[in-house]
Amino acid sequence: METFEPHGSTQDRFGAYLLPGRVHDPRVAIGQARAAEHTGLSTAWIGERLGNKDIGPLAAAVAQATTTIKVASGVTNIGLRHPIQLASTAMTLQGLASGRFILGLGRLNPAAAKAYGLPLVTNAVVADTAELLRRLCGGEKVSYSGPAGTFPKLRLTDLPDTAPPPLVFAAIGPKSLELAGTHFDGVLLHPMLTVDAVARSAATVRDAAQRSGRDPSQMRVYASVLVAPELPEQQEIAAIAARAVTYFQIVGYGESLTTANQWDPSPLTQLRAHPFFDGSTAIADYRFTRYDLTDVAQQCIPSAWIKAAAAVGSARHCAQRLAEYLAAGADELVLHGATPELLGPLMAHAANCTGSTGPAIQGCGNARIGPS
After folding, report:
1. Luciferase-like domain: which residues (predicted)?
2. Could you tell me if 309 and 322 lie in one domain?
3. Residue 44 DSSP code
4. Mean pLDDT throughout 359-372?
5. Rounded Cα gap, residues 323 and 364, in angstroms
6. Does 181 share its domain with 319?
7. How far is Cα 206 from Cα 210, in angstroms, rounded to an integer?
8. ∠ at Cα 47 (320, 230), nearest 5°?
9. Among 11, 33, 285, 341, which residue's beta carbon has the most beta carbons within 10 A?
10. Which residue from 72, 63, 53 is spatially nearest to 15, judged by alpha carbons?
11. What is the CA radius of gyration of the chain?
C-alpha cells in the first residue's frame, strides 16, 4: 500500500463524545458542545441511544448552539429508520448545521434486531444503504429492490442548499473495515483498541479503498480513545475501566475487540460470570450506570488492557498517548470517557504533541511512561 500522510492540522485532529453513556437529561449536551468548541475540538460526537439521545433533535440543538464545530452521529444504527427518513434527517441536520454534519452509521446488534422485529443487517444491506443514502441526499429519484428492502419510488422533495454529509461507518472486524473502505467516506473505530490495532485497522480500510478504485488518502479514519486526564480515582475508574466492562461484557463485541488487539480472551469468561450479573447475558450498559460497575471493573478488567488501549494519568502522558494513535494512522481521535469540559489541560498538551501534518511526539516534553 502507498505511504499515507495524515491530512489536516492540529485543530482538526481531536473530537469528543457528548453525553457519554447513560444520561437522564439530554440538555447537558448543549453546554458540553459549547465547551468542546471553546476548547478547540473539531467534532462533537453523539452516540445515539433510544429514548434520550435521538440523533435528530439532539444534533439539531447542538448545531444551533455552536458555530464552527462539526456535529456527528456516532452512531445511528442501520435498520432503525426507513432509508428515506434517515436521508431526510441527515439533510435537514446538514442544513441546520450549515454543512457541519457527519452521518455516522453502525450495524444494529443482532439481538436488538430480533427483539425489535427487524431483519438482520448484513454486509449487503450496509453497502446498499450507503448507496441509497448517497443518491437520496444528492436529490436523485430512486427505485430499488434488494437486500435493504423494496422501495418502488423514493425521493426527497426539497433539499437544503448544501452538499450531502460525509458517511462514516463504525467497524471493528476485518469485513466491516473493508465495507467502510469500499463504500463510505470514513470509518469510526471502537474504543479500547491498542495503537497497533488502530494501525492495522487503518491499513485495512485504506487498502480496501484502494482496491475499489477510491483514493485512500481521502478516507478519514476516526479512532475512539478512552481518556481520563488527571481525574479523581473513582471518576477515572468509571470513565475507563467500568466503560470497558460495557464493551467486553457483550457477547460478540468482547471477542471482536480481543481479536483485534491480539489479546487472550479468557478474561471475558470471568467478567461475564461475575456474580454481579447474576447469570444474565443482558447487555450491562442497558441495566447499570458506569458507577454501578466500578467494582466489577476493578476485579475483571486487566490493568494491562487499560494501559495498552486507553489514555490515563497526567494530561501530558495522555497527550503523548494520543500522539501515538495519530502516528498509527488515525486522522482524528474521538475522545471518550472524560467529557469536553474536562479536556482543556489535555488539549493544551496535545497542541504541543501534534504538528500540522502529523504527530510530533518529541514536542510533548518529559511525558511519563505510565499513568500517574
Report:
1. 20-331
2. no
3. E
4. 38
5. 9
6. yes
7. 6
8. 30
9. 33
10. 72
11. 20
